[in-house]
């Protein structure tokens, strides 16, 4: 999928050792496929969710309001306050619980700070579908705001925090 653009079609061949291994596969018509089974996937890319390194770096730098190259819990709380404006308070649920959940997920070494490296390597997902929806909405909004002119971008986003 690397290098694909939205709407692009590809035929992807997955070798047996990466597809089903030694499993016998039952297909809907009742037949069984015995190993080794090579999987061929016909895929059309619908949407790209992962942002570029540059966009993520820019967002992290904006969220890092004390410019120490790491996010503390208060900075993450400030981000959540912007989430509330974007997705609405009724979708937030328990803010303290959600803050603890996200901080625990992003602070990989549990030292009380989220470094840029931890932020970039994290999966950015949560078990709670509303959290996922909230994060996706938030990232989408921020990434579109990052495309504003560079002279007003930082001020505009810092003012929101």
TrEMBL record:
Source superkingdom: Eukaryota
Transmembrane regions: none
Database matches in PANTHER family: PEPTIDYL-PROLYL CIS-TRANS ISOMERASE FKBP7/14, PEPTIDYLPROLYL ISOMERASE
Record domain EF-hand: where: 51-86, 94-129
SMART domains: EFh
Chain coiled-coil ranges: none
UniProt keyword annotations, A-Z: Calcium, Isomerase, Repeat, Rotamase, Signal
MF (Gene Ontology): calcium ion binding; peptidyl-prolyl cis-trans isomerase activity
A Pfam family that the UniProt record links to this protein: EF-hand_7
UniProt-recorded name of the protein: peptidylprolyl isomerase
Natural source organism: Mytilus galloprovincialis (Mediterranean mussel)
Listed EC numbers: 5.2.1.8
Catalysed reaction equations from the record: [protein]-peptidylproline (omega=180) = [protein]-peptidylproline (omega=0)
